[in-house]
Amino acid sequence: MSRPGRTYTYDRVQRGFHWLMAALIVAALGLGIYAAWQVPGTSPRRELLDIHKSLGLTVLLLLPLRFVYRLVAGEPAYRAPPSRSAHAAATLAHLTLYALMLLLPLSGYVYSAAGGYGLPWFGVFSFPRLVPIDKALSQAGYGAHYWIGWGLGLVLGLHLLAVAWHAWVRRDEVMGRMWPRRGAGGDEASA
To answer: Does 190 reside within a domain?
Structure first.
C-alpha cells in the first residue's frame, strides 16, 4: 500500500542518467561490433570508431556524476519490498554494471592512447594522451576492451531478461521504478 508523499520511482535526474547512458552504451557497442567487421584503416571504419570512442568517453565522463548523484539521492522506496536475496542480487547486478561501465571505456582509452590512435570527442576536441605509446600496453588494452565489451553485453542481456521477468512474470513494480509515474505515488503527480 502506498503512503501519501512517498516516492516509488527514481527521480527525473536518475531516470535521465539511466536512459541516456543506456542509449550511449547500446550505440557504442553496436558501432564497435560493426566497425570490427570493416577493413582496418578504411572509411567508414575510421569514422565509426571515432563516434564509438566519443560515445564511450562520454559514458566515462557521465559515470562519476551518475554514481555520486545516486549516492546522494538514494533509491526510492518499494511498495512491496523484495526479499533480501532478490535485493542483494539486484545490488550485485547494478554494481557489476557500474564496474563494467567504468572498465570498458578505460580499457578502450588505454588501447587507443597506448596505440597512438586518436582520442576524439565528436570532432570538437581530442582527449589528452595520459599513457605512453606502448604496443604491449595497447594490446593489453585491446584484449581487456574486447572481453569487457562482451561481458557488458552479457550482463545487459541478463539485465533485460530480469526486467522482462519482473514486468511479465512477476508483474511487480520493479520496471515501473525507472519510468515516470503519473498520479498518486509517483514523483510526477503534480507535473
So the answer is: no
How far apart are alpha carbons 122 and 53 in whole angstroms?
Answer: 9
Q: What is the mean pLDDT of residues 62-69?
A: 97
Give bridge partners of residue 125 from the DSSP assignment.
121
Residue 42 identity (one-letter amino acid) = T
**In whole angstroms, what is the distance from residue 188 CA to residue 11 CA?**
9
pLDDT digits (tens, 9 = 90+) for 12-47: 999 999 999 999 999 999 999 999 999 998 999 999
Cα angle 152, 63, 153; round to 5: 10
DSSP 79: S
Whole-number Å distance between alpha carbons of 35 and 31: 6
Q: For position 165, which CATH number holds? A: 1.20.950
